[in-house]
Design goal:
There is one protein chain. By secondary structure, the protein is of the alpha/beta class. The protein has 2 domains: 49 residues, no CATH class; 133 residues, HUPs (Rossmann fold). It has 8 helices and 5 strands, in the order ααβαβααβαβααβ. α3 links the parallel β1 and β2. α1 runs antiparallel to α2. The radius of gyration is 21 Å and the shape is elongated. The chain starts with 7 loop residues before the first helix and ends with a strand.
Length: 208
């Protein structure tokens, strides 16, 4: 089932639609309570139809929009708090053996509280993500790996999709905390990524 709240833009659109529906119900009820009831029932039926359609909807896997050069192996790495972990670095080093690698490390911005989110105050989360990212890139470059990085969308799946628009990844590495400690695993990020993206995906469990 497609998640209607997978990005901030879609979440905002969903809120607007909810408010508009509520306003229609109120206006209908003011005119006549039976009209308000009819509007409410129609909107409920429309929402149920949308949810059933979304459940049956199976979108085609997303592919990189710009393919990688023949002589280059591009690796997209998605990691947040584990971005500088030894287990992730070793995995990247292994994937880079014997190839002309180009590594893009994307660190999703850390989610802030609801108050800060609605106030559009994302600087603290992005700053923390950038610090971890800089440490990871420094260690990779010390190991002789050609790597660059950027802070991405706070939703990891959206961050992957955004990166694939400009980076023709040959494979993706997703790094998380171990089972039982990882919010990404609880939300099914890795399994959904494998369904959503037509790129081989390796999952690394790492401790910070």
């Amino acid at each position: 089932m497609r998640n209607p709240l997978r990005s901030e833009q879609e979440a905002f659109r969903w809120v607007l639609l909810t408010l508009a529906a509520f306003a229609l119900i109120v206006v209908g009820a003011v005119i006549n309570r039976w009209i308000g009831l009819v509007v409410f029932v129609v909107l409920i039926l429309a929402a149920l139809w949308y949810m059933m359609r979304a459940r049956e909807e199976r979108p085609l896997p997303v592919r990189p929009t710009s393919p990688s050069p023949d002589d280059e192996h591009r690796i997209l790495v998605i990691a947040n708090e584990t971005v500088a972990a030894d287990a992730l670095r070793r995995c990247i080093e292994k994937k880079s053996e014997g190839v002309q690698e180009s590594v893009l490390v994307v660190s999703p911005a850390l989610a802030q509280s609801a108050v800060k989110h609605w106030a559009s105050d994302e600087d603290p989360g992005r700053a923390e993500a950038q610090e971890r990212l800089d440490a990871s890139l420094a260690r990779l470059r010390e190991a002789g790996i050609s790597a660059r990085g950027e802070v991405g969308d706070s939703e990891p799946l959206q961050a992957i999709e955004d990166a694939l628009r400009t980076f023709g990844a040959d494979e993706i590495i997703i790094s998380t905390h171990p089972e039982g400690q990882s919010k990404w695993l609880e939300r099914g990020v890795v399994s959904e990524a494998r369904q959503r993206f037509a790129v081989p995906i390796t999952h690394v469990e790492a401790s910070t």
